[in-house]
Design brief:
Helix 1 crosses helix 2. The protein has one domain. Helix content is about 30%, strand content about 20%. Strands 3-4-5-6 form a 4-stranded antiparallel beta sheet. Strands 1-2 form a two-stranded antiparallel ribbon. The protein has about 190 residues and is α+β, with helices and mostly antiparallel strands. It is built from 4 helices and 6 strands; from the N terminus they run E-E-H-H-E-H-E-E-E-H. It catalyses: holo-[cytochrome c] = apo-[cytochrome c] + heme b. One of its GO terms (cellular component) is mitochondrial inner membrane. GO terms for molecular function: holocytochrome-c synthase activity; metal ion binding. This is Holocytochrome c-type synthase.
Length: about 190
């Protein structure tokens, strides 16, 4: 398991057991800069292929609501949401441009079963639960900074640009991160 993304190091591009037809094995490059890589490795993260994504869903027991035919669209949405997440992280990181001009994503961790304190409060006050949560660890020129991302789906807006809501913010695990939250709320 690769500790940078909790995925198998050699993720399978083979068909999953019970799979009815082949799915694309083509992978797309992200624009998200990758920290901690050697000069021989890619400088940006690479997204999973539709086949890899499907295999991951099967491995996690979450492939019951989708078919092979859905994977191209699912992966396209997945990739777009990650690009949007990175844009939002970079917006926060602009508060530290004097310290670090080029933040990079060091690693990330999916935590779909863990509600963040903000997601919990939102749920208690009548909001829905996020369908996923990630913790992204950003390399701010040698300083590791954790971001919490809650991903929401709005059924009533399905098929529209507003169907997904991403709540991105630095984890409140340092005085500096809390100060950043206050600054962004004011500005």
């Amino acid at each position: 398991i690769d500790p940078r993304n909790n995925m198998p190091v050699a993720a399978s591009q083979s068909m999953a057991p019970g799979q009815r037809r082949k799915i694309s094995t083509e992978r797309q490059r992200s624009t998200i800069p990758k920290s901690g890589v050697s000069s021989a490795e890619a400088s940006t993260w690479t997204y999973p292929s539709p086949q890899m994504f499907y295999n991951s869903l099967v491995r996690k027991g979450k492939a019951t609501d989708c078919t092979e035919d859905d994977m191209e669209s699912v992966v396209s949405v997945h990739n777009a949401m990650n690009e949007d997440t990175w844009r939002r992280v970079v917006a926060w990181e602009r508060l530290h441009v004097h310290e670090c001009r080029d933040p990079m994503l060091l690693r990330f961790l999916g935590r779909p079963d863990d509600l963040s304190p903000l997601a919990w409060a939102r749920y208690l006050t009548g909001g829905g639960k996020p369908f996923d949560r990630h913790d992204w660890y950003v390399d701010r020129c040698g300083q590791q900074v954790r971001y919490v991302i809650d991903y929401y789906f709005h059924e009533d807006k399905a098929g529209t640009p507003g169907q997904f809501d991403l709540v991105v913010r630095p984890a409140a695990d340092s005085v500096g991160a809390v100060a950043d939250r206050v600054k962004m709320a004011i500005y």
